[in-house]
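Project standup — Tuesday

K.O.: blocked on the structure for the chain from last sprint. Re-posting the sequence here as requested.
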Amino acid sequence: MQHLTLPDFSRARIVVIGDLMVDQYISGASTRVSPEAPVPVLLVAGQKYLPGGAANVAVNLATLGCRTTLLGVYGDDAPGRELARQLRSSGVNLASAPCEAHTIVKQRMVAQGQQMLRVDFEHPLPGADDKLLELLRQHIAETDLVILSDYGKGTLACAHQLIELAVEHQVRVLVDPKGRDYSRYRGASLITPNWHEFELAAGECAHEEEAEARADNLVRDLELEALLVTRGEKGMSLFPSEGERFDVAARAREVFDVTGAGDTVIATLGASLGCAMSLSEAVELANHAAGIVVARTGVASVTPQELRDQLAIGNHVEAGVVDQNQLLLLATAYRERGKKLVVTNGCFDLLHAGHVVYLREARELGDRLIVLVNSDASVARLKGAGRPLTPLADRMRVLSALACVDLVCAFDEDTPERLISALLPDVLVKGGDYHDSAQIAGARQVLDNGGEVKFLSLVEGVSTSDLIYRARQRDG
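H.V.: unblocked you, prediction finished:
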């Protein structure tokens, strides 16, 4: 995995063309069934309108800081006027004017955070080929990259002409495709179908070798620079026209909602390539962005700061070993997802069965168990000469291998009070050799914050000191 640095997205000038929609969310509680029919009743508490389709791609780009122009078709109606207002307030240059059309609206009924029903309001869109081509001609000289966001609603019937115009001006084109026939996207730089869309266009794939062969055929037949297939929990697979296939694992640790994730992926790709990042770097950054957005409910966008935080977490997270900055970022992310945090600490010099039982019991008190470990210098100060027997890196590696442990982080002080005060977990856990919270580093801060301090019993006859004593007796 390469080291990524976030570029200055404000340098990128992106034009988005595609199907404009409004995503309407009607939310509330559903606690009874209708007496008229066996269907749940939604007691509405609120509703909101968000830009959807190509409009969501544009908002994602503007949120990253790109100079974003949006072309598409929308109506001179209440949803269309709200869409235009939100786009402009998000910093998007909406270059299209409203027309004699009904704005596409996707209405979602949501109860207790769970989508119950979606109702689509769609009408045939008027032909806009000439208008879109003329608008792109007006903007192409000051454009670094074009994104075609195709939701199959008819706006991009002239996709091949738009691509030809961009290529004529040596401007890259990214396409989020729709349908079985991708021939209208010939000459684009990059196409980004999800797995289902890929199989719909290329044919079902029984194994990875077949998928790779079909992807290579698409790249060759459509004269693409590359094909990027998004694969949900399997991450993403990039099939370039030159070089080796490139796979990235999914970054999300919890998936709440995949709505709009494809929009975030292509927007981040476009922003990154518009800033002259390499294709592999752009894919990795888009993967990070997708991992952030699927942890939220509904369509969403990602800020540069969130991406910086995600990059700061780094690659060690998968192994469970993190530094203090990464730990605090992850703890914040867990809380945003409603996770209950449990923290414990210790030297864990010679991990034994008693430790394992204790850590399993601690994990059962919440959703995430964080283990804070004394550094080698800290252990030496506490335990004396000759300790630790096991260096910090090995102690952390063994702890992180336990299924009950989510994150392991070292501290260099005699106690982890400073780190616990920063984390403020829901539950602070210590072993049964402690009985008074006043003895526990960080306990006062946790209790003052509304958290709990728990004491767990120790396994009789098992301790590090006893193991050391028995080993020395045998050696003697």
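K.O.: great, moving the ticket to review. The chain has a mean pLDDT of 88. The chain has two domains: 9-22+52-102+125-313, 324-475.
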